From TrEMBL:
Protein name: Uncharacterized protein
UniProt keyword list: Membrane, Transmembrane, Transmembrane helix
TM segment ranges: 20-43, 55-77
Source organism, top-level taxon: Bacteria
C-alpha cells in the first residue's frame, strides 16, 4: 500500500493545473453546484421542477461554484505541497 506522500508524488507529477481541474473544478465545484441547485429548488418548491427558475439557479450556481472549486483546488494543492515539502525536508 502506498503512503500518502507516494500518492502525492504521483499526483504532483501530473501538475497543478491538472489537479485544480480534476479535484477542484470537476471534483468539488460542479458537484456542489448540482447539489446546491437540487436542494435549493426542493426547499423552495417541495419538488424538483425543471423550469426557468431551476435553470437560472443552475447557471448561477455553476459559475459561482466553479470559481470556488478552482480556488479550493489551488488552496488544497498549496496546502498539501507545503506539507509535502516539510515532510521531504525532515526525511532527507
Amino acid at each position: 500500500m502506498k503512503s500518502k506522500w507516494e500518492k502525492w508524488e504521483q499526483t504532483r507529477a501530473k501538475g497543478k493545473k491538472n489537479y485544480v481541474i480534476f479535484n477542484g473544478l470537476l471534483g468539488w465545484g460542479i458537484p456542489m453546484a448540482l447539489l446546491y441547485t437540487a436542494v435549493w429548488t426542493y426547499i423552495q418548491h417541495q419538488e424538483i421542477a425543471f423550469n426557468q427558475e431551476l435553470y437560472q439557479t443552475l447557471i448561477i450556481s455553476l459559475v459561482i461554484f466553479s470559481v470556488a472549486g478552482v480556488g479550493f483546488g489551488i488552496w488544497t494543492w498549496n496546502t498539501t505541497e507545503k506539507q509535502y515539502q516539510k515532510y521531504k525536508g525532515n526525511n532527507e
